[in-house]
Amino acid sequence: MKTILWIAGFFFCVFFSKTTQAISQEIRYSSAEATEVYIVWGINNWQLPENRNIPKGSYIKDNLVYSPLTLIEDNTFAINLEANPGTVIDYVFWIKKGLYDKAADIWDTNAPNQKDYHTYVTSNAITLIESQVKVKPKEPLSILDFAYPTLTYSLILYCIIYLLWKYRRAHEFRTRPELIII
């Protein structure tokens, strides 16, 4: 009798249990003006996901998950979120730093006609969001913010001009007729 109950229990678990495997959903954010970006997200109408699906480095504030995005190439940030198939990921982007790593506090909540971003999880996929938001720093930029690039380019230009001048003088010295020894 115990064997029959064990077999029945096994088949019940195998055929009737709800087994869902989390799927990786990569979300990419492209912004030419951002240098540090967070995704602020939830699932299925902004509910908190299970703890096992929250990426490392994330924190929870006001029942929302804040996860830092990683810079993967010029102007493109990315994160892999784990979610069950059929889940809707609701999210916005928080830009913490803009050009020259200046502090910013800009929220990209999607175009004015839409509310937030949403991704429906069906398979391992990549979602690319291209930002239309202009990132303005909290404090105004000063001339000192441009000093390092300006000095670097000036020094390179000075070296090129000096080398050209030196090459020209050496070339003129060799071609002067009064200095040619026969």
Describe what this molecule looks like in 3D.
There is one protein chain. This protein has 182 residues and is α+β, with helices and mostly antiparallel strands. It has 2 domains: 20-130, Sandwich (Immunoglobulin-like); 143-179. It contains 2 helices and 10 strands, in the order αββββββββββα. The protein has helices spanning 2-16, 147-175, and strands spanning 23-30, 36-43, 59-61, 64-68, 70-73, 76-83, 88-97, 103-108, 117-120, 125-130. The strands form 2 sheets. Strands 2, 3, 4, 7, 8 and 9 form a 6-stranded antiparallel sheet that branches. A 4-stranded mixed sheet has the order 5-6-1-10, with no helix packed on it. Strand 5 and strand 6 (76-83) form a beta hairpin. The longest helix has 29 residues, at 147-175. The N and C termini lie far apart (119 Å). Mean pLDDT is 82; it is low at 1-19.
- H/E order of the elements? HEEEEEEEEEEH
Q: What is the mean pLDDT?
A: 82
Task: Note the gap between the termini.
Answer: 119 Å
Alpha carbon gyration radius: 29 Å
Which CATH class of the largest domain? Mainly Beta
- Give the number of domains: 2
Using the 3D structure, state the CATH architecture of the largest domain: Sandwich
Question: So, the CATH homologous superfamily of the largest domain?
Answer: Immunoglobulins
What is the SS-derived class?
alpha+beta
Helix content: 10-25%
Number of strands: 10
Per CATH, what is the topology of the largest domain?
Answer: Immunoglobulin-like
Q: In percent terms, what proportion of residues is strand?
A: 25-35%
Q: Extract low-pLDDT stretches.
A: 1-19
Q: Helical element count?
A: 2
**Basic shape:** elongated
**How would a textbook summarize the main sheet?**
6 strands, antiparallel
